[in-house]
Amino acid sequence: MTRVFSGVKPTGHLTLGNYLGAIRQWAAVDQHRSDALFCVVDLHALTVDHDPARVRRLSRQAATLLLAAGLDPQLCTLFVQSHVDEHARLSYVLECVATDGEMRRMIQYKEKAARERERGGSVRLSLLTYPVLMAADILAYGTDEVPVGDDQTQHVELARDLAVRFNQRYGHTFVVPKATRPPVASRVMNLQDPMSKMGKSDDSGSGIVYLLDEPDVVRKKVMRAVTDSGRDVVYDPEGRPGVANLLEILAACTGGNPGALGGVYESYGALKKDTADAVVEVLKPVQARHKELCADPVYVEGVLRDGAEKARAMARPTVDAAYRAIGLLEPSSDPVAEPVLNAAR
Ligand code: AMP
Ligand code: TRP
């Protein structure tokens, strides 16, 4: 059976981009047709300035929202990254396979590091090595497919490169994974700035629809979306990024096709209204289920505990195999080994 792994970082409240670009596909498709693991990747949230209490809160919230979005612990494994030591164990070994040049070429690193330096802040070393930890997340589980939004393509490519390189140098150990993307909305753009991705840790919230936004807030944000000069509604991501973004969101929410939907509307106002309604409808059941789950934290904790246990058992053999392959001595379980070693000294 195909093995699927994906994750979400608890660096901010989950957005419509997270949902349409990744989570919805996990719930609707991936968990049904594959052996799937989904992870709240909290170690990744420590790569930028963070508040410990907020990361803890957001981790719990992300796990609750993943369940609310339809992940079913009977069908998939849901867990928190830091509960499974194998990720960090494997990450170090993969750092010994990756090069620093490779890390510095990562687009997300370059952008985030530049932004951080502009603010006069320092860049954590873990931000540079982050894609290696992500590769470890993926490779530890023998993952075939990684369902992600567009922005993660380069990171999954790196995981592929590291798997191939490790296998060539040290013998076949890792499955070589590939990224998969949703057919539409693999890159939902910020409603106020349709040239940039709708990112959950962006400073201004007005261009970002959060999964827990109330219906009237969603409506306000969508109705105020920046559109383009021009009047006719056509799907042209290059020339009319604002309108194209709304058409993609609408198509993703209603199951339509953004190009075909373009011909249906006479005005931007009508397009915005229908898009707002469609988003509100898509979020309604997720929000209702989230409310129920918040009233039952013991259930959520239990899911995460069981998930971590299952994940640990799945990752352990591969990570142990990588340790042996790269030349690390296997710890001996033989009680006579210790005196023999001492005698040899
Ligand atoms: P992150 O919020 O960076 O942890 O992302 C979690 C998942 O959501 C990843 O698969 C991302 O590629 C996806 N994602 C995040 N933002 C967007 C967006 N604006 N459009 C589409 N997918 C996104
Ligand atoms: N880097 C991903 C993001 O920012 C999150 C992530 C971490 C991930 N490890 C992963 C996604 C492994 C897929 C597989 O969205």
TrEMBL record:
InterPro entries, alphabetized: aa-tRNA-synth_I_CS (IPR001412), aa-tRNA-synth_Ic (IPR002305), Rossmann-like_a/b/a_fold (IPR014729), Trp-tRNA-ligase (IPR002306), Trp-tRNA-ligase_bac-type (IPR024109), Trp-tRNA_synthetase (IPR050203)
GO CC term (a single one): cytosol
Catalyzed reaction equations: tRNA(Trp) + L-tryptophan + ATP = L-tryptophyl-tRNA(Trp) + AMP + diphosphate + H(+)
Pfam families assigned to the protein according to its UniProt record, in alphabetical order: tRNA-synt_1b
Chain residues that bind L-tryptophan: D137
Molecular function (Gene Ontology), one example: ATP binding
Keyword flag ATP-binding: yes
Keywords, sorted A to Z: Aminoacyl-tRNA synthetase, ATP-binding, Cytoplasm, Ligase, Nucleotide-binding, Protein biosynthesis
UniProt motif 'KMSKS' region: location: 197-201
Locations listed in the record: Cytoplasm
Annotated GO biological process: tryptophanyl-tRNA aminoacylation
E.C. number(s) listed in UniProt: 6.1.1.2
Residue interval(s) of motif 'HIGH' region: 10-18
Residue sites binding ATP per the record: K9, P10, T11, G17, N18, G149, D150, D151, V188, K197, M198, G199, K200, S201
Top EC class for this record: ligase
PANTHER family: TRYPTOPHAN--TRNA LIGASE, MITOCHONDRIAL (PTHR43766:SF1)
HAMAP family: Trp_tRNA_synth_B (MF_00140_B)
Function of the molecule: Catalyzes the attachment of tryptophan to tRNA(Trp).
Alphabetized NCBIfam families for the sequence: trpS
Family of this protein: Belongs to the class-I aminoacyl-tRNA synthetase family.
Subunit structure: Homodimer.
Stated name of the protein: Tryptophan--tRNA ligase
Originating species: Streptomyces brasiliensis
Gene name linked to the record: trpS1
